[in-house]
Amino acid sequence: MLTKIIEFSLVNRGLVIILTLLMAASGLYSALHLPIDAVPDMTNVQVQVVTDAGSLSPVEVERYVTYPVENTMGGLPDVEELRSVSKFGISVVTIVFQEGTDIYRARQLVTERLGDAAANIPPGYGTPTVGPLTTALGEILQFEVRSDRHSPMELRTMLEWEISPKLRQVRGVTEINTHGGFYKTYEVQPDPDRMTSYGISMELLFQRLQANNSTSGGGYVIHHGEQRFIRGVSLLENESDIESVVIRREPDGNPILLSDIAKVSIEPMTRQGAVTRDGRGEVVTGLVMMLIGENSREVVESAKARLKEIEVTLPQGVRLEVTYDRAALIGRTLKTVLTNLTEGGMLVIVVLLLMLGNLRAGIIVALAIPLSMLFATNVMAFTGVTASLMSLGAIDFGLIVDSSVIMVENCIRKLSHDNGDAKHEDVIRDAAVEVRKPTMFGELIIAVVFLPILLLEGTEGKLFRPMALTVLFALGGSMILSLSFMPAMASIFLPRKMKEEDVFLVRVVKFFYEPLVRRAIKHPFVTVAMALTVFAMSLPMGRHLGAEFMPRLEEGDLLVEALRLPSATLEGSIEMSTQIENILKKYPEVKTVFSKTGRPEIANDVMGVHQTDVWVLLNPVHDWPGHKTRDQLIEQMSEEL
Asked: pTM for the complete prediction?
């Protein structure tokens, strides 16, 4: 079969080259639209059920909210793990499904049982909802809503009602998580003495408020030949409307208004989190959460473009400033990968040109590098493998060009030894057929090494499987090219008459290598004994080598975790985070500092008010004054903090 592939490629050289160019064009398109992230997403298949439990304590949340939800979700199929967190006013139940379970099927199974879970929760204790369809890497963009003319409550209201709905329309955005500021509420403060004197109970007060804040339809009437709809509108719009609600009437018909027994004011809702920045106090932020499986780079760019469109529609003086951008990290990752790939590819090409001693042969072999990469991007796009630092950085160009080097070098040898009796294509064919099995087995042996990685499960599998698949895709492309494209190119560009001779570097290597080989063959027992001795000496050294689960990823920024006693107040944590920001902002290497204390309304990571994450965004290293390293900066900051 391999012989027929080679013969077909030589007979239809033009077709093979055209198909290769089409593959390369498709690979380039796939590379430009391939989902890219800094690291593979290692999140397992999980669905979160979040319940806002109002002002319940952790004990009541666990007993009356979390337990009913856990009990209802426990019998779902393919569930691997069920865990929960119960804190003041919130319950988060995480249902982990077996690997391979479709995330939409898992969410459907959970949604089907939400009704049963809600029925088991006492009235008024909260309604369980399914969390956003995102992952641990879904937080891709954070922005601040700034203004010197508006209060934090007004900014929060703009974010909730004007900015977030428009951002949710961006393709790939699943939710906008608001954090910081004050959530606007209308607070009714009853006067117990007045309520007692009028004989009004709290239950009646609740009923009247609820009944006077609704709307209804009344059908329609025919008026002068036109159909006109009847609407009953009694929605409350401001404090005056609330104060004018009639609670009941006296026997003489005089109404008792809400203003007679209570005060109405605009107050912030009780909160369990806040955001501060650069030591200037509290700010209002929005966090864009990406839909699972989307291209983070494209979603970030689309969200940033939409923010610019929204900003011009906001009141004068309101600005939207991006504080965290995943695209910056992805850009640095791409730059690192492309730099390494380019430098490695150029080094391989130079070595090929120097060692083969033939410019045409070196160029033909060097084409295997970009073509194999483009073949791999095609398969990655088809199979849904995300490009990352782990996957792209694992490609070894030496492995990719190995089969092509053997193929082209044997063609040169055959052409140089041919006496001119056979046709040019026949010589290329014989040379390619002669090494077809060694090259194929060499590629297969390398591929077998990566197969065990594909069998990894859990977090290890999600982390290393894309790396193994990318290498296997590139090796597969290299093998196909060595059997088709390389013979076709050799038959076109390699001349009929060639002279095989060693280049200078090869002659130098042979000068030292040949005597060593002769001595090794002459004394086989000594050679084997020396090899075993070196191996035995290396074993103790291997025990002292460091080991880690994955290489350290330098994102370019820092994260400081600040913890206080669990009984700490939100105001005390805000004061502490502001002090930390003032200290860190003095460093010229720091671009901006913002702190997240507690939890937002959509809480995937449930934090208490005693927990603060301080994000320290740094300037580019080349802009740092002096010659301070990252570790030195961290040590200096830690000492001062």
From this structure: 0.79
